């Protein structure tokens, strides 16, 4: 029951490198001389099939503690556009801010159908010695944001003015802080684990500076705050509210407590349900709320009446040598220094039940569960990190299944196998670090992180590429990546800061998106390329749609994660020095598209930005495409159908980044002579050729791009004739669908 983690460890030698698998339980009670089924190996004619086969073996060897993505159902939010509050407001989020963010997008014709209320809604507090009169997380924001004067805001809260300061003392303090910050990031942050400097730093942090560090983090950040009550904080409560549960529960379900809000003396309701109702009244279908695996970054508060019944105790995480060798600064991470208020797994299971009951009764549809990476350091005395993770994820998934029946769970900061190998029902997880809007060096690296990690994690979950900002130079790059990622599409734009022209290439007027069917992963030819630093390689990401496939090409050279410094760094002195790269696309880039036994196969490839069509056979490539820094292109790949002398293929919705995702079926068949030929009197162009009919069903609006080797004699959309435009030079056929969004039947007669 205390299965250890397996950590690869490589030791370079003069002639060979020795690769070892180190078993780490992180608990003195869980020791062993060996382990069974420690490594799964697989071989296949495709690297992606090999990974899938290895994961099947691993799941069976672990008695099904995790299931493959293909055997699970993701929540419905993966197929609609969403908005997250985090990068728009951070901890200053309020109900008014949420309403403003939703309304601003809807006013621009891009309605978000799911919303994540991120960190900032919970009742949290620091330890008693660090409490202050106004808390920067749980209390009202101290400055007035721009959106508050807009007409669609239905709630106004009181805002105070931040204290002004200045003078020589403030300047000296700022200079000192900047100097210390520079010294830390350039000298201390990435010192080698177990080196003399590392051991001295750890001693000073643990025994000398711990109170000062904890006080600083409690004042300036969220990491040493802990959950003080189940209910929402004062920003999200309404005085005098008497919300009743929004849905009836079957007898025997839920917890014994009638209302989790009773612990705070708020009676049967605190008004949070009204907040959720107002958000949904703006057209939002699903609202998710954020919380951490242990409740909050600092866990549950051991001294607050609202959570005392869970019997939390503050525990200092102890990380494994395998983790510290990779991230030595985890030894003085703010959570490691301040500790986590944790409890026995059974009590944390009760916490999940009460929290989720409270949220579900308010009308919330799911949760984003963050901070999962800490579980490995908190398993001491509980059978180790893997054993603790197994119990917590079982409890979490049980509570989610009971209170959020659409599998409303997004896992976050969960990349350790302790978490991944316990995703039994969990079907959606973020597979990257955060999207950092103000950290330009991270914007390109983010794409590489997600694409390559999806090769592994995509076998277990639908990959979440995280939110992004539509406005800014990285917006188009990230939008194109989401189009090929097979992932949810959601932004964290501040109200009014949107690129609607870009978003319309991802989102329909209804809020639906065209999600590709698989996790987006690197093509074979860049699986082992350093697409961030080698100066020549483009990142190419492939995916499949129901009909055809899609390939995204990106220049993400110029920045990378520095193992030496432990931060994202630019590789060049200026953006002008970042090299251009060449991308070349072929049909084989989409795994499984090419049938090696059919030498007559042909494929049509459309470039999204130029809208040019090219006809390719297996082995042929598109002309080389030169991409400058942060430039990109998306190619749709479709198999050409052939009947007699007619070659035809529906390709994509025009002007949609993954327009091929709109196609639901297609066929090209000889016309039934009595009906399609004789009755209509149309034998087709080309003299003596029997009539041929192409049919396709698709979802969307606007126009459909097809390839056609000859000009059709008639085109129908939903039974009505339309005037299509055919271009002889490349076979481009544009079929107008009209403004109605929905399923359309297109018939093309030759």
Structure, explained:
It is a single chain. With 750 residues, this protein is of the alpha+beta class. 23% of the residues lie in helices and 23% in strands. It contains 16 helices and 32 strands. Strands 25, 26, 27, 28, 29, 30, 31 and 32 form an eight-stranded antiparallel sheet that branches. β18 and β19 form a beta hairpin. α10 packs parallel to α11. The longest helix has 22 residues. About 8% of the residues have low confidence.
Short description:
The protein is an alpha+beta fold and 750 residues long.
Characterize the biggest β-sheet. 8 strands, antiparallel
Rg result? 28 Å
Tell me the structural class: alpha+beta
Shape: globular
Number of strands: 32
First CA to last CA: what distance? 66 Å
Fraction in helix: 10-25%
Secondary-structure blueprint of this entry?
Elements: E1 5-12, E2 17-24, H1 47-61, E3 81-84, H2 86-89, H3 95-107, E4 114-117, E5 122-125, H4 167-188, H5 196-207, H6 210-220, E6 226-232, H7 272-281, E7 286-292, E8 313-315, H8 321-326, H9 334-338, E9 340-342, H10 345-361, E10 366-370, H11 385-403, E11 409-411, H12 417-420, E12 428-430, H13 440-457, E13 462-464, H14 475-484, E14 489-491, H15 500-503, E15 521-522, E16 539-544, E17 549-554, E18 559-562, E19 567-570, E20 581-583, E21 603-607, E22 613-616, E23 625-627, E24 632-639, E25 641-643, E26 646-653, E27 663-670, H16 673-678, E28 692-708, E29 714-717, E30 720-721, E31 725-727, E32 732-749
Parallel strand pairs: 3-4, 3-14, 4-7, 7-10, 10-11, 12-13
Antiparallel strand pairs: 1-2, 5-6, 8-9, 15-16, 16-17, 17-24, 18-19, 20-23, 21-22, 21-24, 25-26, 26-28, 27-28, 28-32, 29-30, 29-32, 31-32
């Amino acid at each position: 029951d205390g299965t250890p983690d397996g950590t690869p460890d490589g030791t370079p030698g003069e002639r060979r490198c020795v690769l070892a698998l180190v078993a780490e339980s992180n608990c003195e009670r869980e020791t062993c001389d060996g382990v069974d089924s420690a490594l799964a190996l697989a071989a296949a004619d495709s690297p992606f099939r090999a990974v899938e086969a290895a994961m099947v073996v691993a799941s069976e060897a672990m008695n099904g503690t995790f299931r493959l993505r293909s055997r699970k159902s993701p929540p419905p939010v993966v197929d609609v556009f969403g908005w997250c509050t985090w990068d728009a407001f951070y901890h200053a989020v309020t109900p008014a801010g949420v309403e403003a963010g939703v309304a601003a997008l809807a006013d621009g014709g891009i309605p978000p159908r799911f919303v994540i209320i991120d960190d900032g809604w919970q009742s949290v507090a620091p330890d008693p010695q660090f409490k202050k009169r106004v808390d920067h997380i749980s209390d009202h924001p101290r400055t007035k944001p721009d959106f508050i004067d807009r007409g669609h805001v239905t709630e106004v809260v009181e805002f105070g003015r931040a204290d002004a300061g200045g003078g020589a003392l403030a300047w000296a303090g700022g200079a000192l802080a900047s100097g210390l910050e520079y010294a830390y990031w350039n000298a201390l942050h990435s010192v080698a684990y177990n080196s003399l400097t590392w051991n001295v730093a750890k001693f000073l942090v643990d025994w000398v500076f711990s109170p000062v560090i904890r006080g600083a983090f409690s004042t300036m950040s969220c990491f040493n705050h802990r959950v003080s009550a189940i209910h929402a904080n004062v920003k999200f409560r309404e005085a005098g509210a008497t919300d009743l549960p929004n849905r009836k529960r079957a007898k025997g379900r839920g917890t014994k407590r009638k209302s989790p809000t009773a612990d705070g003396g708020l009676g049967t309701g605190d008004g949070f349900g009204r907040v959720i109702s107002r958000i949904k009244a703006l057209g939002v279908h699903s609202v998710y709320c954020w919380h951490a695996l242990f409740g909050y970054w600092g866990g549950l508060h051991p001294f607050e009446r609202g959570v005392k019944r869970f019997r939390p105790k503050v525990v200092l995480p102890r990380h494994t040598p395998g983790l510290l060798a990779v991230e030595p600064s985890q030894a003085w991470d703010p959570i490691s220094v301040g500790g986590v208020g944790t409890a026995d797994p059974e009590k944390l299971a009760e916490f999940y039940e009460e929290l989720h009951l409270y949220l579900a009764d308010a009308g919330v549809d799911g949760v984003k569960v963050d901070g999962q990476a800490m579980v490995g350091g908190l398993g001491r005395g509980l059978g180790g990190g893997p054993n603790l993770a197994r119990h917590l994820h079982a409890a979490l998934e049980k509570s989610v299944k009971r209170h959020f029946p659409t599998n409303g769970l997004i896992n976050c900061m969960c990349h350790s196998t302790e978490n991944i190998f316990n995703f039994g029902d969990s079907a959606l997880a973020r597979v990257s670090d955060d999207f950092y809007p103000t950290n330009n060096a991270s914007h390109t690296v983010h794409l590489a992180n997600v694409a390559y990690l999806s090769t592994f994690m995509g076998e277990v979950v639908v990959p979440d590429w995280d939110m992004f900002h539509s406005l800014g130079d990285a917006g188009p790059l990230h939008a194109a990546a989401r189009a090929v990622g097979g992932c949810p599409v959601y932004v964290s734009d501040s109200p009014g800061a949107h690129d609607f022209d870009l978003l319309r290439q991802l989102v329909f007027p209804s809020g639906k998106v065209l999600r590709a069917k698989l996790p987006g992963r690197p093509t074979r030819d860049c699986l082992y390329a350093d697409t961030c630093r080698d100066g020549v390689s483009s990142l190419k990401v492939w995916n499949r749609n129901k009909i055809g496939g899609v390939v995204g090409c990106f220049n993400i050279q110029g920045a990378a994660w520095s193992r030496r410094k432990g931060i994202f760094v630019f590789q060049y002195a200026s953006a002008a020095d970042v090299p251009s790269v060449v991308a070349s696309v072929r049909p084989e880039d989409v795994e499984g598209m090419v049938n090696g036994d059919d030498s007559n196969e042909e494929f049509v490839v459309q470039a999204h930005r130029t809208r040019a069509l090219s006809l390719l056979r297996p082995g042929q490539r598109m002309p080389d495409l030169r991409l400058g820094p942060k430039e990109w292109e998306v190619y749709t790949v479709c198999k050409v159908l052939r009947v007699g002398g007619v070659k035809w293929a529906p390709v994509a919705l025009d002007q949609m980044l993954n327009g091929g995702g709109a196609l639901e079926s297609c066929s090209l068949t000889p016309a039934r002579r009595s009906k399609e030929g004789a009755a209509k009197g149309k034998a087709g162009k080309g003299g003596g050729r029997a009539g041929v009919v192409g049919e396709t069903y698709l979802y969307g609006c606007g126009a459909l791009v097809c390839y056609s080797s000859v000009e059709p004699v008639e085109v129908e959309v939903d039974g009505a004739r339309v005037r299509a435009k055919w271009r002889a030079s490349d076979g481009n056929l544009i079929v107008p669908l009209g403004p109605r969004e929905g399923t359309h039947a297109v018939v093309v007669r030759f």
